[in-house]
Fold this protein.
Amino acid sequence: MNATTALVRHARDTRLYLFLGLANWFIFLDHMPNDMVGWMTPRHLGFSGAAEMFVFIIGYNAALAYAPIMLERGAIVGATRVLKRAWQLYAAFIVLFAIYVVSIGDVATRYAAPDIIYEFNVTGLLEAPVRTIAHGLLLQSKALNLDLLQLSVLLMAYFPAALWLLLRAPTLALAGSFALYLAARQFDWTLSTFPDGSWYFNPFCWQLLFVLGAWCALGGVSRFRARLRAPVWAYLGVAYLLFACAMSIAGRYPAFGDMLPIWLHDAFIPNDRANLAPYRILHFTVVALFATRLIPKTWRGLDWPVFKPLIVCGEQALPVFCAGVFLSLAGHFVLVTGSGSPLAQILVSVAGFAIMTLVASYVAWSKRQDGHAIAQIGRGASLRTG
């Protein structure tokens, strides 16, 4: 299957928005450590989590959005459109970073809770505020919960070259991405943060998942689809998911982990998230294959009202992600300072989902109004020139 055919086939796949919305909800829950509802997120049930889902899908969607432009209007025009999106992500990160760190500082001062500054990795504001902000502008922030958006900025800025190669030599592009991944893990390549440490998501490793998503969108996985339908692969996949779940539980409960052989324990615990361990990629791949098989593109359930909140949150992923960062901060503060009861945890989680859905719905409505206004202007101009 060539790239053009794949783009036509995969255009407007509602499942992408469903899973991206689900990833945003899971990320919101994962950012609140004292929330029992977060126990249902993928990272507590296996090796991979919502971050893998998020990065893979934005890579997939980026290929669907910008490959047609590069094919029809040339590499330069396509690259400028991708870089425009990277700039939008960067602008969102800067605004989010500024408001986020100020909010944390205000909460710490207003409620006499200085520990929150250390918990969210913004101590640099106390010791060197100007340098901390300057390094934040250079994507060297270590503020907690902003790392995934920071990673997305860099991946999108790098994507024009990757997309150009994917459209001409997809196998070579994927092989190059894999080689970079292996080299980064072997030689400890990463990027630094201020005042110390390194990126929570190593971009030299996580780029593989982003490129893999784009490669799949351009038809790369179609040649393996028939082979993977054999029953033996399903049995092996289920066995691996059960093994991953058991190892994840062992990582959270030391008493269980101590019962494992040393070689097995040390191979999977702690779970190497920063450098995207191979077993995390394999786990995500198995989950993705099962999900796409169980929920086909033509499934009528995608039109059910119950899934509408998730789908709209996936369609407006950037504003929803930004809203989720603030909501997780607010929810965490409410749970820490309040009763923190199971009922409170459920209410905070449901309220977060509701607000994220309202944000997504408003942004979608606003975009429709802008589109309607532009169409009206266009019709008016046609009548005047007619």
In short: The longest helix spans residues 342-385. Residues 3-297+307-379 form one domain.
